[in-house]
Amino acid sequence: MLATWQAIPRHQLDTQRWDTCIATSKHTNIFMYSWALDILCEQQWQAFVYGDYIGIAALPVRKKWHLIRYAYQVPFLPYCSVISTEATIQWQDFYRKVKSKFSFLDITCDWQHTKRLTANEQLRTNYYLPQGVAYELIANNYSTACKKNLRKAQQRGVLTPQKSNDTVTIDLLLQVYDNAYGGLQKHHHQRNYNTAKSFMHKALAAGWLQLYTTYDSDNQLLHVAAMITYEHKHWYYMAAPTTVGREKRVTYAFIDFAIAQACAANASFDFVGSDIANVATFYRSFSPETQYLSLLKAWLL
To answer: CB within 8 A of 241, min separation 6: which ones?
Structure first.
């Protein structure tokens, strides 16, 4: 019998079987674990289950005017995925279920065949380095400008990033991140920082989050970063330089370090973005490959 999709309320979900599906799938996304969705979406998400938990999908939920139920892009949740332990997914059936539960979408996802859901699709650029490539080969392909900035970082006294297991580093990261980028964020509020903090605490306790601080030879703080390391994937989850760190090109040095760490672990490296022109140019200087995600922003009729 052909498996079908079911929309299941969060409170009726078998979270153990949900999380097992993610843990045993080749295509994984740590942000789809039930505990991650509970934290980042503040318990407000719609579950979709394929067959007997052989596939899962989730969308964050909001309501407008108490009538319109819509899916939205949650800050610090990069993208939503459909995850399955089987190769075949009934996409048409899945999209019928999505339409039955939502009137409007404003999300980023890595779904397939999205034209069957809506014609209003934009492609978002994501950069990554694949698993199984030697660091020396990757570093040799850095752009000339990237190599120049790495030399500047070394000349300006940037030291090797130091790993931290102290949860105080999460508070430091959020402070430095807000100082660096808070003014550029249109939709991030203190509650979003709070959920990101809770997510990072949980991931750190599970051993899936690595915290790093970078200083210079004068012991000045230059950079703070949180890397997610799960299975054979590393995500550049959240990071920010201080004002002094930016002048010393510390972000070049940290990403080079993080790429070397991913290569040593035989893991891919996900830059997590970006469509911001100057950030995209910066990421491209490390000669990554390109993955296109779907930005779905449309009424579902």
So the answer is: 176, 180, 222, 223, 250, 251
Looking at the structure of the chain, the number of domains it has is 2
Asked if 111 and 132 sit in the same domain, the reply is no
Cα end-to-end span (Å), the chain? 29
Indicate which CATH number applies to the domain containing 232. Answer: 3.40.630.30
Per-residue pLDDT, averaged over 137-142, amounts to 98
* Residue 266, CA atoms < 13 Å, CB-side half-sphere: 1
User: CA 280, CA 239: separation in Å to the nearest integer?
Assistant: 15
Range of the domain at 21: 5-117
How far apart are alpha carbons 33 and 229 in whole angstroms?
Answer: 14
Distance CA 152, CA 248 (A): 7
Residue 89 tokens read as 């997914």
Same domain flag for 278 and 192:
yes
* Residue 185 pLDDT class (50, 70, 90 cuts): low
Contact yes or no for 240/181 (Cβ under 8 A): yes
pTM, full prediction? 0.93
What is the Cα Rg of the chain in Å?
Answer: 20
pLDDT digits (tens, 9 = 90+) for 250-276: 999 999 999 999 999 999 999 997 778
Q: What is the mean pLDDT of the chain?
A: 93
Domain annotation covers residue 297: no
